[in-house]
Specification:
The protein is mainly alpha-helical. It has helices spanning about 1-55, 60-100. Helix 1 (about 1-55) runs antiparallel to helix 2.
Length: about 100
């Protein structure tokens, strides 16, 4: 029986290691996506100013700014999804900590 317990413990460790790797990867991806979203938001604001400055056609500027507003709303939706993802990662981390404490 002790051999089986040893195998079970190694399996648990392997599973925890894999889970920690997956969570770490998810956290890295979330950080990268967040940085990209912030960068895109900054570029969007800059684009709006450039459009106002360089287009002689007010209607074209309006269309471009309207599109920009749509993209900003999409960006906000993506930020919300990121937050939901972070919450999920936090829950997984809490479960990992709980499992580690059980040893």
């Amino acid at each position: 029986m002790s051999n089986k317990e040893g195998n079970d413990e190694r399996s648990d460790r392997t599973a925890l290691t894999e889970l920690e790797g997956a969570v770490s990867g998810l956290l890295d991806r979330l950080a990268a996506v967040s940085a990209r979203a912030e960068d895109a938001e900054g570029k969007g604001e800059e684009l709006g100013e450039l459009v106002k400055r360089f287009t002689g056609d007010g209607a074209e500027a309006g269309r471009m700014l309207s599109r920009l507003k749509g993209l900003e709303e999409e960006n906000q939706d993506l930020r919300s999804r990121l937050e939901t993802g972070r919450d999920g990662v936090d829950k997984v981390l809490a479960k990992i900590k709980f499992l580690e404490e059980q040893r």
